[in-house]
TrEMBL record:
Stored PANTHER family: HYPOXANTHINE/GUANINE PHOSPHORIBOSYLTRANSFERASE, XANTHINE PHOSPHORIBOSYLTRANSFERASE
List of residues binding 5-phospho-alpha-D-ribose 1-diphosphate: 127-131
CDD domains: PRTases_typeI
Family (UniProt): Belongs to the purine/pyrimidine phosphoribosyltransferase family. Xpt subfamily.
Protein name (Swiss-Prot/TrEMBL): Xanthine phosphoribosyltransferase
Name of the gene this protein is made from: xpt
Amino acid sequence: MELLKQRIMQDGRCYPGGILKVDSFINHQMDPMLMYKIGEEFIKRFSNENINKIVTIEASGIAPAIMVGYIMQLPVVFVKKKKPKTMENMLTTVVHSFTKDRDYTVCISNNFLTPDDRILFIDDFLAFGNAALGIVDLAKQSGAHIAGMGFIIEKAFQDGGNVLRKMGIHVESLAIIDSLDDCKITIR
């Protein structure tokens, strides 16, 4: 997706340790027109999948997931990082955050993730694949089928994409970063 790649090169910032900041247009301040184009691109890439629900994990995946759900006219469910006291029929798994270097117990009600669901998981970043593997675990617990996983940005050098693809999951990344060595952004 050329528009996204241009924006990463223009406004993305690199930090030591393989961190790419895109907080001025994706995950803190958002560009809604870019998000809409991102939603359209995901829909194109997953058009052959029979999807009936969009799933994401809070918080940065919510905006692109809502765009996809809005355009496809499908419900959007987000996996929560804090267990609400009122959640019924809770499924949980542990996810490690690369950016924050901590583990989260994430949860979703199996009222909203069922064996009838063919889900498209949408998130902002794919690095080591920890959040995505958490979704795989939650889908397994609920009996839901993962029709695909879409990521705005994949950091190919951190191998999460390879792990998911080897599992047979249809993965689409709109921009693939091959390297952040010496804080130079190299996009495939």
